From TrEMBL:
Keyword list, A-Z: Membrane, Transmembrane, Transmembrane helix
Domain of life assignment: Bacteria
Protein's name in the database: Pilus assembly protein
Keyword Membrane belongs to the record: yes
Source organism phylogeny: Bacteria, Pseudomonadati, Pseudomonadota, Alphaproteobacteria, Rhodobacterales
Regions that span the bilayer: 20-42
Annotated organism of origin: Thetidibacter halocola
Length: 187
């Protein structure tokens, strides 16, 4: 077996017909394209996963707060989103405290946005109701929305720059609801 293999290898090494060169010229560029496309698709799925995990991390951190949060806290959460995702584009985040009332349905207690998001209004909340959990009367939930831009490493025709949007909700853990601390104007 080994003798047959070494004879084939010796014969291949002595062959000077040029077939190997032609095949190399044909196949190497194709292999490089396939590897580049594979890397780009892998990187896109990895980036989407990082964005989802970052949204859940921010939501979990907010759900554990017992003190009122303010602008500095949310700016820090936006910096955390940037750190965790390390994506190429702008970062946006919206945090909304939603309460359910048997009489009025879902209500916005407060909403704050950073980046490209606008604050949440009642009309937009109404369009999100199917994504919100069923709540008891006066029960609250923290809704965190994040969005980051992704640009592929290599240009692949079916993979274009896109925004990764995440919608996450979490019930407050140690307090009945998350409170927004109103900024007091400087005297």
């Amino acid at each position: 077996m080994f003798a047959k293999f070494s004879n084939l290898l010796r014969r291949f090494r002595r062959d000077q017909s040029g077939n190997v060169t032609i095949e190399t010229v044909i196949w190497v560029p194709l292999l490089i394209l396939i590897l580049g496309a594979t890397f780009s698709f892998y990187e896109a799925f990895r980036q989407k996963s990082l964005n989802t995990k970052a949204a859940f991390t921010i939501s979990d951190a907010l759900s554990r707060e017992t003190d009122p949060i303010d602008d500095e806290y949310l700016d820090g959460m936006l910096s955390l989103l940037e750190f965790l995702t390390d994506s190429s584009g702008p970062y946006s985040m919206r945090v909304t405290m939603v309460r359910f009332s048997d009489d009025d349905g879902y209500l916005i207690d407060w909403t704050q946005a950073r980046g490209g998001f606008d604050t949440l209004d009642d009309a937009t909340l109404a369009s999100m109701e199917e994504n919100l959990p069923k709540l008891l009367n006066n029960e609250s939930v923290i809704v965190v929305e994040t969005q980051t831009e992704y640009t592929p490493t290599f240009e692949v025709e079916s993979l274009q720059p896109q925004n990764f949007y995440n919608f996450v909700f979490t019930r407050p853990r140690f307090a009945p609801k998350l409170v927004w601390k109103e900024s007091t104007p400087a005297a």
